[in-house]
Amino acid sequence: MSDNTLREEILKLKEELDVTVVAHFYQKDEVFNIADFTGDSLELAKFSAKDEKANLIFCGVGFMGQSVKILDPNKRVLMPKIACCAMAKMVDIEYYNQNILFLENSGIKKEDIMPVTYINSSAEVKAEVGKMGGYVCTSSNAKLIISKALMSGKKIFFLPDRCLGQNIALNMGLKSCVVGDGNDPKEFDIICYDGFCSVHQLFDIEDIEFYRDKYPDILVITHPECKPEVCKNSDFVGSTSQIQKYIKELPLEQKIVVGTEYNMVNRLRKKNTYILSSTKPECPTMNETRLEDLKEVLLSIKNGSYINEIIISEDTRKYAFKALNRMFKL
Ligand code: 13P
Ligand code: SF4
Q1: What is the DSSP string of 35-87?
Q2: Which residue's CA lies nearest to atom 4 of ligand 1?
């Protein structure tokens, strides 16, 4: 079936049904262009939780659909693919508790630990964080949330992205270490879990040098999931929305090189834009969602079979909500 026919069928089903379709910036163009609302993880969570339709289809990765369900348990949240963000998969409750135990064995009492989890984590991990009085953050508000969490006077345990944790620490003039790197965690303000994003790890300092040598006036723009040395050598570091806003305000003649996911960069602007890698940095799980999957999930709403519905137990949801809501309150 051609993409055009598929598109028309999807649009028709969307019109017939009580449904809203949202898509993250990293989705393939064909999926992105058919959504009712697009944005970064924070914007999508906020929008979706307020949306009045009974059904929400989230084109993104699993933790994003889960965030909407945590905020609004009465909404039916479905995903064309329950694709799991590789970074979110790096931490589960068992690893989380092992890390807390490691910190306790290093001489930090559990009551002196303030966990802050990046939104890229499962509902179960968010619930553990919620139980300990901790926060959720996104890449657009991590600095604000960490500043607030530091007011508790406790050590920050930041998870799962060690790069985001280290980059925020550098930005705020704080000391950070990574669990298991041989350092004594007691000596540091932010102790990071050893997780990372495989896509943003693709960007290296050599790539920056290559572009700066070739085009001395080029601006280097990266996401804070990139390695600290990459962010330190960038002209601008920001979340997906912040990157878009920054680029929009630049003159079109300004050459830019961007270190974040391919689909988003490719859509930003066609001229004078380079990607900070010799390989195509596509997020494999974000790219799993196809128009065919979107049609399938719409059909399942029509026939009442509701495939790929996000289900979270009330016990997990209630604690995960605490951590997520502490972020929204700020
Ligand atoms: P945003 O929070 O900026 O949307 O990013 C999510 C993400 O997964 C980046 O890799
Ligand atoms: Fe997860 Fe990285 Fe993909 Fe973002 S780009 S969804 S952090 S694997």
Answers
A1: -SEEE-HHHHHHHHHH--SSEEEEES-HHHHHHHHHH-TTSEEE-SS-PPPTT
A2: 40
